[in-house]
Amino acid sequence: MNQKGLLLVVSGPSGCGKGTVLSRVFAKQPNTYYSVSATTRPPRPGEENGVQYYFLTREAFEERIASGQMLEYAQYAGNYYGTPAQAVDAQLAQGKNVVLEIEVQGAKQVKLRRPDAVMVFIMPPSMKELRHRLQERGTEAQEVIQRRMDTARLEMPQAKDYDYIVFNDTVEEAAEDICAILRAGRCLAQKNLARLDRAIQEA
Ligand code: 5GP
Questions:
Q1: Span 12-25, pLDDT tens digits
Q2: Contact between 99 and 32 (Cβ < 8 Å)
Q3: Residue whose CB lies within 8 A of the most ligand 1 atoms, among 47, 53, 101, 155, for a mutation test
Q4: Cβ atoms of residues 84 and 90 within 8 Å
Q5: How would you list the strands of the sheet with 118-123, edge to edge?
Q6: What's the whole-model pTM score?
Q7: How many contiguous H segments (helices) and E segments (strands) does the chain have?
Q8: Residue nearest to atom 2 of ligand 1 (CA)
């Protein structure tokens, strides 16, 4: 029987380069599935429903919370964000690793519900670089950028509660670090108990 996949939670301040690093990880790790979240924030230019996010109205989002379809959810910068549970469980059962790219409040909920989740916090190289990246994105108003910088200052101390902290000094190194974490996760004792038991019985 296939080993269940690894549930990897990745957080980090908006603009720290999570998306770019994770794209590299997916290019290197075909057996890894990106969990598409739902959100009530409007799409940015180029974003498509069902690809980056499922874009929902507040009413539709709240309905999904009420019917227990969200593995976790949080309000961030005035909008709801959440992880639809069903797709995550289906992929894990097929032996795929599942990556949740979510903020810190949601990450805490996942750890409580799924204690075997592996938690990674991605840090920007510096606060100066973070502001620069948020400004370069060019799609957000100045006020939104300031709000995201303030949120980053609140989020970063919470990295201490994660299993791993990866500094995004270069995309390639950060992606390699995450691949190494996925690899090590496959060998966690807790993930191999069934096979271990079979081997012991055969012995
Ligand atoms: P953005 O609007 O920049 O795409 O995302 C804003 C923040 O929401 C990021 O920190 C991102 O990781 C987080 N986020 C995205 N999807 C989810 C989700 O499903 N749940 C939670 N809790 N946070 C999410």
A1: 998 999 999 999 99
A2: yes
A3: 101
A4: no
A5: 32-34, 97-101, 7-11, 118-123, 164-167
A6: 0.93
A7: 8, 9
A8: 41
